From TrEMBL:
Pfam families (UniProt xref): MarR_2
Annotated GO biological process: response to stress
InterPro entries: HTH_MarR-typ, MarR/SlyA-like, WH-like_DNA-bd_sf, WH_DNA-bd_sf
Domain HTH marR-type: 15-148
Superkingdom: Bacteria
Protein name: HTH marR-type domain-containing protein
Native organism: Flavobacterium panici
Gene Ontology MF term list: DNA-binding transcription factor activity
SUPFAM superfamilies: Winged helix' DNA-binding domain
Length: 201
């Protein structure tokens, strides 16, 4: 069976080149994150968890949610949380009303760590910034569509995008957010929204 790593398949097909391009980009992020991890004596997942906690609501900072978000087992996330707690980057407090749940928060030291690591995506961010606006819109439209389909196929677990939000409606070919009561143009479609309301697939 042919695949994109077969150079004949890849070089004779635009589909193969685009897919290989995505694969190359995933390597880029892995390398950039590893550089930060080595520099700060943390693992890539420890850095990702800290960054995630900083930018999301408290109800998402749970072992179950993080396990889904990062496609890892709850045991792996629990170990990650334990190490981050030992290194004093986070605090974990068991909720008084329900001993099975706990609140995970960044400490001041954790916040400092996020501030020096969360820019690991900047080399790509800087390149995207200089792409002409029209081309960016086409890129975003296609990229968000690919992500939506990967979520539908359950390749990507958690998605807090407009396309699978309970507040998202389509009318007369236009997209709307009922929560904010606004029309959503391509540039407004969100990949990760803290107001997202999950809907069943
Ligand atoms: S609440 Fe957020 S995710 Fe949902 S439709 Fe509105 S902007 Fe999109």
């Amino acid at each position: 069976m042919k695949n994109i790593f077969d150079l004949e398949t890849q070089n004779n097909s635009l589909d193969g080149k685009i897919t290989a391009g995505f694969e190359r980009l995933s390597q880029v992020f892995r390398v950039l994150l590893w550089e930060k991890a080595k520099k700060h004596d943390l693992s890539p997942i420890q850095i990702q968890v800290l960054i995630f906690i900083k930018h999301h609501t408290k109800n998402k900072a749970t072992v179950s949610y993080l396990a889904k978000e990062f496609h890892l087992t709850k045991a792996t996330i629990s170990d990650t949380i334990k190490i981050l707690e030992q290194k004093e980057y986070i605090t974990k407090t068991v909720n008084a009303n329900d001993s099975r749940s706990s609140t995970i928060e960044l400490t001041a030291k954790g916040l400092e760590m996020v501030l020096v690591t969360e820019d690991f995506t900047n080399p790509l961010f800087d390149l995207v910034k200089i792409v002409p606006e029209k081309e960016k819109l086409v890129l975003w439209k296609n990229l968000s569509s690919v992500i939506e389909q990967l979520h539908y196929l359950q390749v990507i677990n958690v998605q807090s995008t407009c396309h699978n939000c309970g507040y998202f409606v389509q009318q007369n070919g236009n997209n709307y957010c009922r929560l904010m009561d606004i029309q959503l143009e391509t540039k407004d479609i969100r990949l990760d929204c803290n107001d997202h309301k999950p809907v069943r697939l």
